[in-house]
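stage 2 :: seqdesign
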């Protein structure tokens, strides 16, 4: 028995370095996957440098990410530095069984860290931990503690964040949940308040692509309130966002999306509900990814004319290269509904557009390719919405004359205000009447409408061509 125990101990001692080395290799591969996943998932972000310092029980991976967003004049976007402290398996930290455990820490620039300290004090503003499973894949958790602080004259309250993402090896499949309890910012000019925000999704990477996923995503925003100097400037309730993307045919994406707000109030005006529903089909995934990557790489990081021209040339080259294949499948986009209002009072637009096949020669000129785009949209606005807009225009006009009106006697002031309201109404009515006479607007009972179409390079409004020759129709 003693000999057996001794053999097992010796075997364990011999195997431990080999096992740790093996999982150290796995940890390094996972770190490289993590680097690639970030740039694939987040547009306009590239890896500036990636340094890996490997140890026996643990390693350190320092990742420097460079935003490629357009720079502001005279400024550049700072790099984002993430330091990953990696504990090797099979017993990382000796408190779990896994291939590796990675603590992700953002190395904030000193000036940013000083500002964050005003809110979080000594606490870490953002904590991220990834555990790599023995069989590949793993789970990442993210959290940010609640905090209260003051930035100059603004009082800031943040109620905390928590999230979790499960992923398979290579991030081929992932699902996530994210919750933000709420936040507010208040200064002498006003107050912005955000209610609870929740988001979740489950997605699968399309084979042969790096960053194209299909699946479902959903998000809810309980409330959004903006007060300016004691007056409610905006109040939105019950915001929901749902997207479902699929691939019914090889490499061709289809999807539906819905963005809805149960209640929308702007400047004290009740606008009812907000609905934005769309769908798309026949979108060639490899072409979409190639164009997106080219646009990201072409985005200028400086405001010089040379950088802008180089960026424009690169974008044009990307479209010229990939537009023929993208258009060959005749992709289509439907604006199923964009509507603000109630059942009786509303403004809405719906329609669709699709792209006919573009040849390689036509893709060399946007003006030559544009006639291959067909579109048709219907617009409807009720008279009650028009009256509301007229009232608001009148109020703005009177606000601009407030000082002059205040000098008048009450009766004369009331008369002037009435005249200004009537003039505004007459002006709007006259403009609508002119559009009706010209055929650009159709008046029906309780509403006006218009149909705008683009076909074979010809733009028409209610069947009447406008901008003749503008698109060089073929």
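stage 2 :: out
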């Amino acid at each position: 028995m003693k000999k057996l125990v001794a053999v097992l101990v010796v075997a364990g001692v011999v195997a431990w370095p080999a096992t740790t080395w093996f999982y150290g290799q796995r940890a390094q591969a996972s770190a490289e996957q993590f680097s690639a996943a970030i740039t694939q998932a987040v547009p306009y972000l590239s890896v500036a440098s990636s340094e890996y310092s490997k140890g026996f029980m643990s390693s350190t991976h320092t990742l420097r990410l460079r935003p490629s967003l357009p720079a502001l004049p005279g400024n550049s976007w700072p790099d984002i530095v993430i330091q990953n402290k990696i504990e090797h398996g099979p017993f990382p930290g000796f408190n779990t069984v896994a291939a590796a455990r990675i603590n992700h820490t953002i190395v904030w620039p000193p000036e940013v860290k000083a500002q964050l300290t005003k809110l979080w004090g000594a606490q870490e503003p953002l904590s991220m931990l990834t555990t790599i499973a023995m069989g590949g894949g793993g789970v990442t958790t993210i959290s940010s503690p609640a905090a209260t602080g003051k930035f100059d004259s603004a009082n800031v309250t943040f109620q905390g964040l928590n999230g979790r993402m499960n992923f398979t090896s290579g991030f081929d499949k992932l699902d996530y949940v994210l919750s933000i309890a709420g936040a507010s910012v208040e200064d002498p000019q006003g107050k912005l308040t955000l209610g609870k925000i929740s988001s979740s999704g489950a997605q699968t990477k399309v084979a042969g692509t790096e960053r194209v996923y299909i699946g479902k995503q959903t998000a809810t925003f309980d409330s959004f309130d903006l007060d300016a100097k004691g007056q409610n400037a905006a109040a939105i309730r019950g915001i929901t966002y749902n997207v479902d993307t699929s691939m019914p045919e090889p490499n061709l994406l289809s999807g539906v999306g819905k963005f809805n707000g149960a209640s929308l109030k702007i400047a004290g005006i009740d606008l009812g509900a907000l609905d934005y529903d769309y769908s798309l089909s026949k979108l060639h995934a490899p072409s979409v990814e190639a164009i997106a990557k080219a646009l990201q790489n072409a985005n200028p990081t400086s405001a010089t004319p040379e950088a802008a021209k180089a960026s424009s040339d690169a974008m044009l080259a990307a479209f010229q290269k990939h537009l023929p294949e993208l258009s060959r499948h005749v992709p289509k986009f439907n604006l199923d509904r964009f509507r603000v209002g109630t059942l009786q009072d509303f403004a809405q637009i719906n329609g669709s557009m699709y792209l006919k096949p573009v040849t390689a020669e036509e893709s060399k000129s946007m003006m030559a390719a544009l006639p291959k785009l067909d579109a048709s949209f219907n617009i409807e606005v009720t008279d009650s919405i028009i009256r509301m807009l007229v009232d608001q225009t009148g109020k703005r006009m009177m606000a601009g004359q407030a000082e002059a009106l205040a000098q008048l006697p009450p009766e004369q002031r009331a008369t002037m205000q009435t005249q200004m309201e009537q003039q505004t109404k007459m002006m709007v009515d006259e403009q609508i009447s002119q559009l009706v006479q010209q055929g650009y607007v159709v008046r029906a009972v309780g509403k006006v409408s218009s149909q705008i179409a683009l076909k074979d390079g010809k733009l028409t409004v209610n069947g009447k061509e406008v901008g003749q020759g503008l698109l060089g129709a073929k």
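stage 3 :: structure notes
- Residues 381-466 form one domain.
- DSSP finds eight helices and 25 strands in the chain.
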